[in-house]
Amino acid sequence: MPSFDVVSKTDMQEVDNAVNSAAREIANRYDFKGTKSSVERKEAEIIIIADDDYKLKAMQEMLKIHFTKRKIEPTALDFTKPEPAASNTIRQAVKVKQGIEQELAKQVVKAIKDSKMKVQASIKGDELRIQGAKKDDLQSTMALVRGLNLPLPLQFVNFRD
Q: Cα(124)–Cα(102) distance, rounded to whole angstroms?
């Protein structure tokens, strides 16, 4: 029976590269000269430190641009609420999403079942397994899942015939 997996994985090496190139741009940009602005990655989290809201917004956009250049979807970033930090600066933690959350997986399975396609969807940890009798059914299921516009990047892997 043909099947495939729906996963949400982010390559942490590419995340590192994007964060490092954003840090280099911050060091070279004229509007960031003499400020305490910085960006660094710790595990699956990116810490942004900025002097004010304007610089924080600029750094967020810069991160999104560098992620896009590295072929990582900006939807993989989960920006938390900014909080005050030492020396009148603002700190914001940005989580890098890995895996499909249980609630989101249930929504995808429900959407697939509501579409009345002849496929079975099951949740396997932080990924989904879709099985069907025909490849055409699986391909239409892929199109359906892409059309859901979910708040995280999805990949379709392990296509078995």
A: 10
Distance between CA atoms of residues 45 and 77, nearest Å: 9
Q: How far apart are CA 153 and CA 149, in angstroms?
A: 9
Please report where in the chains the tokens 């909080």 appear, as a residue: 83
In order, the DSSP letters of 122-142 are EEETTEEEEEESSHHHHHHHH
- The pLDDT tens digits along the chain (161 residues) read 888 989 988 889 999 999 999 999 999 989 888 888 889 999 889 999 998 889 999 999 999 999 999 999 888 899 999 998 888 889 999 999 888 888 889 989 999 899 888 888 889 888 899 998 888 888 899 999 988 888 888 888 888 87
According to DSSP, the β-strands at 89-96 and 83-85 are antiparallel
**82 and 142 co-located in one domain:** no
Task: Let me know: does 90 contact 82? Beta carbons within 8 Å.
Answer: yes
CB atoms within 10 A of CB 27: 11
Residues 88 and 117 grouped into a single domain: no
Would the pTM count as exceeding 0.90?
Answer: no
Q: Please, what sign has the CA dihedral across residues 93, 12, 63, 48?
A: positive
119, 64: one domain: no
Residue for token digits 């430190």?
Answer: 49
